[in-house]
């Protein structure tokens, strides 16, 4: 073994970077940010840090580009030879680099989106909502296509599942850097402005380097609520009406903003943050009330500011734009309720009737936030009524641009967010309900209740409080985890009646079953058949026009039977539930409990939508969004708008006759293939996870137990069982641990055996082209395997001293990779996805460096004497590397 000379090292790194096919501007950004980080390491790191980082970087690049060399052994020796304190700094340096590369990539994506917005849309484009409407018009006619648009609904639900490994302070620093990089783009070379932008970026990167990368303690549920609020404040509040505006402009070219819009407010945002108490003892009824209050405060502040801003600019004179009689009546009503303010506003807005009305409306919104009962709006519907009087007056006076411009965007915001911002959903485990009901049924009259029973009942009182204070849309969906019978759902209504007593009125509840395991998915239609005749359910169905939500769990079904069998079972369950709903005359919304990682149902949402069974979408798509996915999809306004537009387009096209016919025909044609794949993948998965000693082996070869030490979220990683059992391990650490070990087993294990069992490569290639479900599955597995690394994986597997289990994993990895490449084509993984392939290749050698540092810490911790306390410095190094690998792979759980 020998270290390359400085000249050789520079040449190697230069060739590697030049070999990454990326847009030139992105390449320049990566070089700039990397060079600035290098300066920071030299200026702010300990002596020799920069040189050690470079030695490890060069070795991992050489190992990645020349697998047959001894470079990986040399890189491992470098990692093992560092002091723990130096390894800590090196891990932080590589993690900082990933944050900067991710930033450069996001910046390039925003550039591309803005360039796309400036270009004329292709007539055949279907990845925009406007394009989807045009496609639907060609298939079913304009009237029916617009009817589908009016019924469109996209409903992302933000969760606090602990999968965001970055501290919020780090995310905030990166966001500031993003703004500075945007400023840098506008400067000219060698200008004073460019030097100033570079200096400010250097300062911010130095701040990023000096900021502790790990949280000192777990966030509380209220901390999690405030963290999600940042996404609403920074992007979603203003981005969503801009999505509607762009679509309307495309559908009404030249007339958008000058006439009544065609686009309905189709986004509804939900949240489990502060409401999901399944396995989280820290989410209490008190937290749920506070979460609703925080969200309402944020949206009312946003509405007040937007209304004031629009009002100040609405300086239309009564001579050119006379008020309608309805607007005059509204002014009289508003003035009588707020005399002093009305007098002052009238003085500042002489002969400007529309301006003065809107400024008084802004005061009423402020009063709603501060709970001034004399002036506050009772609910968002009353605010909307006032805004529409204003809009109709402007339109009648010929000021259509003012009526349907900024004012329309304000109306869209109120329609989308109400006074609650996000619809708060409660989730609880069916076993908790059963336990409390058993206690209540057995109790003597007047007997004291347990702490658990009191808390469960208080939740229903909290829901009633939220509905009363913020409107019925603010809360009311109640999800029952591990629904296994109709009794599990009926229990919710029984508990609600207990909570309010014999003379009280229970809150309005939409009780949603969550089917999670393989067996539960298969039993779902029978359970639904039974519950819809239950009196409370039947009454609620009648009240909502026979609307029903059913949630499907991707995470636990995948952990239950493996990713392949779970995906196929989920498809079959959706088809059966959709057919059942059609027979029952029920408007079904399937709620997809999808995670960020592929092992939890992640992957591109639009592709997933188009692969759903016929009638399972019907213009409505609801899914969970969590952790790093929330910030990746909604953290930047341009990316958020593009994501929402793409998903909405897919939701519309999912119900197009051509798409439904394709999915129906493919499901029938490849039914036997699906059954063969399901059986073979399940047998393969069981052969691993049911092997004697698998659970402790899994805990030893991955940092599964140590992940629980990361202060990611308020929810515990386990439901309470020991490491001897996986049954009670949450799906998130199951996926997260395999990802950290560079194996990604939860995303692909069993697919190779499934495809091998079919055996016919020509048939499978044909199915890949014609069967959207298989195509999505194979493309997702290709991404999962591309982020895995069998060289690094073997080092983790060697920690377990179980060659038989390690061999099963590596054999299946090799088999799966071979089959995926044979079916998808090309000379390697992701050959048909060049942008994804570039992103993975750009990061892989640097992820390898962090993996080697993690292995070094993991080996030392595993080799410690039985019962000895863990070395805190090694634990910190391990957790730093976990955070860094998560940043590099852009996946956690």
Q: How would you describe the overall organization of this protein?
A:
- The chain contains 40 helices and eight strands.
- It has 893 residues and is mainly alpha-helical.
- It has a domain of 220 residues.
- It has an eight-stranded parallel beta barrel with strand order 1-2-3-4-5-6-7-8, surrounded by ten helices.
- The chain is globular, with a radius of gyration of 29 Å.
Distance between the termini: 38 Å
Individual helix count: 40
- The average pLDDT is 90
Portion of residues within helices: 55-70%
Q: What is the quaternary state of this protein?
A: single chain
**Rg, Cα atoms, Å:** 29 Å
User: Which class best fits the helix and strand makeup?
Assistant: mainly alpha
Strand fraction: 5-15%
Tertiary shape:
globular
Query: What is the strand arrangement across the widest sheet?
Result: 1-2-3-4-5-6-7-8
Low-confidence stretches: 597-602, 717-723
For the secondary structure, the number of strands is: 8
Largest sheet: 8 strands, parallel, barrel
Topology, element by element:
Layout: H1 6-18, H2 24-44, H3 49-65, H4 71-81, H5 84-118, H6 129-140, H7 142-150, E1 153-159, H8 168-185, H9 192-210, H10 221-251, E2 270-271, H11 285-313, H12 325-337, H13 339-348, H14 353-370, H15 380-396, H16 400-403, H17 406-417, E3 423-429, H18 430-442, H19 451-470, E4 475-481, H20 486-500, E5 510-515, H21 518-531, H22 535-543, E6 547-553, H23 554-561, H24 563-584, E7 587-593, H25 605-610, E8 620-626, H26 627-634, H27 637-654, H28 657-669, H29 671-689, H30 694-701, H31 704-707, H32 731-740, H33 745-748, H34 751-758, H35 761-770, H36 772-787, H37 790-797, H38 803-824, H39 834-862, H40 872-889
Parallel strand pairs: 1-2, 1-8, 2-3, 3-4, 4-5, 5-6, 6-7, 7-8
Helix pairs in contact: 1-3, 2-5, 2-9, 3-4, 3-39, 4-39, 5-8, 5-39, 5-40, 6-7, 6-27, 8-9, 10-11, 10-17, 10-27, 11-14, 11-17, 11-19, 12-13, 12-14, 12-15, 13-14, 14-15, 15-17, 18-20, 19-20, 20-21, 21-24, 23-24, 24-29, 29-34, 34-38, 35-36, 35-38, 36-38, 37-38, 39-40
């Amino acid at each position: 073994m020998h270290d390359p000379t400085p000249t050789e090292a520079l040449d190697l790194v230069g060739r590697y970077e030049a070999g990454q096919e990326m847009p030139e501007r992105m390449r320049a950004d990566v070089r700039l940010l990397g060079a600035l980080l290098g300066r920071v390491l030299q200026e702010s790191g300990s002596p020799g840090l920069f040189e050690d980082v470079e030695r490890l970087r060069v070795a991992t690049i050489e190992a990645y580009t020349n697998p047959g060399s001894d470079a990986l052994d040399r890189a491992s020796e470098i990692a093992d030879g560092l002091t723990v304190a130096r390894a800590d700094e090196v891990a932080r340096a590589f993690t900082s680099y990933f944050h900067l590369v991710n930033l450069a990539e996001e910046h390039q994506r925003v550039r591309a989106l803005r360039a796309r917005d400036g270009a004329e849309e292709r007539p055949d484009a279907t990845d925009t909502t406007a394009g989807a409407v045009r496609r639907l018009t060609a298939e079913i006619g304009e009237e029916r296509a617009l009817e589908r648009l009016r019924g469109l609904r996209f409903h992302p639900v933000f969760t606090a599942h602990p999968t965001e490994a970055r501290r919020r302070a780090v995310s905030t620093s990166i966001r500031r850097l993003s703004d500075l990089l945007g400023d840098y783009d506008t400067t000219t070379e060698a200008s004073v402005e460019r030097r100033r932008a570079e200096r400010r970026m250097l300062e911010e990167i130095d701040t990023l380097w000096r900021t502790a990368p790990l949280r000192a303690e777990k966030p509380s549920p209220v901390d999690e609520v405030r963290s999600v609020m940042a996404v609403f404040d920074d992007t979603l509040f203003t981005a969503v009406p801009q999505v509607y505006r762009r679509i309307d402009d495309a559908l009404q070219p030249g007339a958008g903003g000058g006439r009544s819009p065609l686009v309905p407010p189709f986004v509804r945002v939900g949240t489990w943050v502060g409401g999901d108490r399944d396995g989280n003892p820290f989410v209490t009824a008190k937290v749920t009330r506070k979460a609703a209050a925080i969200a309402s405060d944020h949206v009312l502040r946003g509405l007040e500011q937007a209304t004031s801003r629009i009002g100040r600019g609405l300086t239309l004179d009564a001579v050119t734009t006379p008020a309608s009689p309805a607007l005059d009546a509204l002014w009289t009503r508003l003035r009588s309720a707020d005399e002093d303010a009305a007098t002052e506003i009238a003085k500042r807005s002489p002969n400007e009737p529309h301006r003065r009305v809107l400024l008084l409306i802004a005061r009423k919104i402020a009063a709603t936030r501060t709970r001034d009962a004399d002036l506050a709006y009772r609910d968002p519907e009353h605010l909307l009524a006032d805004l529409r009087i204003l809009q109709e007056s402007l339109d009648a006076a010929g000021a259509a641009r003012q009526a349907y411009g900024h004012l329309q965007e304000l109306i869209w915001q109120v329609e989308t967010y109400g006074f609650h911002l996000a619809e708060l959903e409660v989730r609880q485990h069916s076993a908790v309900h059963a336990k409390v009901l058993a206690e209540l049924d057995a109790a003597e009259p007047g007997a004291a209740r347990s702490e658990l029973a009191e808390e469960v009942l208080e939740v229903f009182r909290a829901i009633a409080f939220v509905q009363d204070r913020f409107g019925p849309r603010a809360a009311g969906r109640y999800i029952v985890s591990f629904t296994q019978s109709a009794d599990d759902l009926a229990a919710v209504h029984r508990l609600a009646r207990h909570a309010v007593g014999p003379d009280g009125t229970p809150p309005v509840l939409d009780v949603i079953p969550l089917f999670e395991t393989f067996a539960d998915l298969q039993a779902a239609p029978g359970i639904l058949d039974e519950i819809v005749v239950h009196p409370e359910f039947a009454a609620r169905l009648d009240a909502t026009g026979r609307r029903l939500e059913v949630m499907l769990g991707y995470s636990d079904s995948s952990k239950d039977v493996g990713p392949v069998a779970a995906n196929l079972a989920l498809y079959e369950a959706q088809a059966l539930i959709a057919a059942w709903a059609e027979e029952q005359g029920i408007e079904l919304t399937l709620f997809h409990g999808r995670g960020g990682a592929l092992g939890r149902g992640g992957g591109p949402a639009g592709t997933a939508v188009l692969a759903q069974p016929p009638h399972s979408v019907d213009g409505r798509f609801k899914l969970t969004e969590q952790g790093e996915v929330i910030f990746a999809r909604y953290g930047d306004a341009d990316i958020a708008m593009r994501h929402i537009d793409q998903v909405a387009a897919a939701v519309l096209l999912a119900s197009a006759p051509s798409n439904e016919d394709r999915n129906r025909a493919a499901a029938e044609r490849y039914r036997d293939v699906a059954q063969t794949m399901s059986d073979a993948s399940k047998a393969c998965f069981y052969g691993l996870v049911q092997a004697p000693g698998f659970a402790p082996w899994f805990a030893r070869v991955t940092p599964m137990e140590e992940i629980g030490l990361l202060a990611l979220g308020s929810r515990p990683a386990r439901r309470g069982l020991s490491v001897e059992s996986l049954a009670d391990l949450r799906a998130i650490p199951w996926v997260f641990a395999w990802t950290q070990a560079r194996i990604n087993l939860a995303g692909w294990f069993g697919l190779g055996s499934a495809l091998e069992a079919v055996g016919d490569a020509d048939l499978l290639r044909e199915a890949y082209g014609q069967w959207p479900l298989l195509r999505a599955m194979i493309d997702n597995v290709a991404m999962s395997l591309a982020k895995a690394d069998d060289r690094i994986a073997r080092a983790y597997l060697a920690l377990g001293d179980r060659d038989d289990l390690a061999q099963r994993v590596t054999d299946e990895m090799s088999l799966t990779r071979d089959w995926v490449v044979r079916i998808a084509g090309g000379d390697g993984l992701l050959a048909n996805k060049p942008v994804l392939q570039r992103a993975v290749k750009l990061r892989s050698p640097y992820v390898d460096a962090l993996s080697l540092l993690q292995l070094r810490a993991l080996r030392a911790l595993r080799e410690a004497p039985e019962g000895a306390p863990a070395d805190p410095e090694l634990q910190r190094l391990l957790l730093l590397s976990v955070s860094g690998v998560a940043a590099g792979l852009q996946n956690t759980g």
